[in-house]
Sequence to fold (346 residues):
Amino acid sequence: MSADAALEPPRALGPRLCAARLRSEPEDFLVEEQLGFSPSGAGQHVLLKVRKRNANTQWVARELARHGGCRPHDVGYAGLKDRRAVAVQWFSVPQSPRGPADWLDARGADYEVIEAHAHARKLPRGALAGNRFTIRARGVSASDAQLEERLASIGARGVPNYFGPQRFGRGGGNLERAAAGLRDLKPPERGFVLSAARSLVFNAVLAARVEDGAWERLMAGDLAMLDGRGGHFPVEDPDETLLERCARLELHPSGPLWGRGAPPSGGKVLELEARIAAEHPAACALVTEAGMDQERRSLRLAVRELRWQREGPQELVLSFCLARGAYATVVLGELFDLGDYEDSST
Fold:
């Protein structure tokens, strides 16, 4: 199973400007979850806003379970967040004799609870509007003019919505496990390996559309996806209105998250997706055997509230907001050569 399209896909906006270093310190990478809803103020759970440093999400969840006297399985969180970083994310715990105010003293060497609110239900996976990032890149030799031009292009056009290399494990190890087959996967690794298999096919389809310039425009047979939402609708013949909405980053073409049956796309889009899937038979067979259904993911990622400033001759601080499920390193990859950088969010 080739990992080329997964680990080093083609760039869309031109050659990278220079090399850069990330995460020299955890504080160089700050991510803050944006829930998109307010705590309900009453209910059988407590919603906790937690600041963690250099700690992974699952470890923090276990610490909160220990603190609250519940099972780790009872702790909810919307998604995994980067380990080597400062991350502000939300967790939920069941109500107990500890009221919300009692949680404000919950802390450890690598985390602290900074808000606590009564809430109606356990926080489910994916329950986010998006994430806000503030990232310090070091060793940046590109000029201000080069940065200004590239960042303006990113803001206006977005970037290809690739899955980042962290999705595939260190050195693509999750893809190697995918080739072993479903029965050989241990329960703790199953979800990661299935996600990697799906992501491989998606990245390969997106890479093909980047190479022919179709990643940011709607084609007949596409399924258009609303920006920041999961809904999509078929495009039989993109008219002027749809094309204008796509140019404004309100709509995006989508690609397949592989599963049982054929993708719901049509025409040349379906032909491309079927051809790419046939090139990755092990990945497709794995997710089909697991009973996963065909789903869609936007091919393009809008980068909102993009700002930058110099802090030292070769230090750059970037801030921006992304929809849930998107990777900050994909944005940075349209700017910099990040070398052997690997995100360790799990």
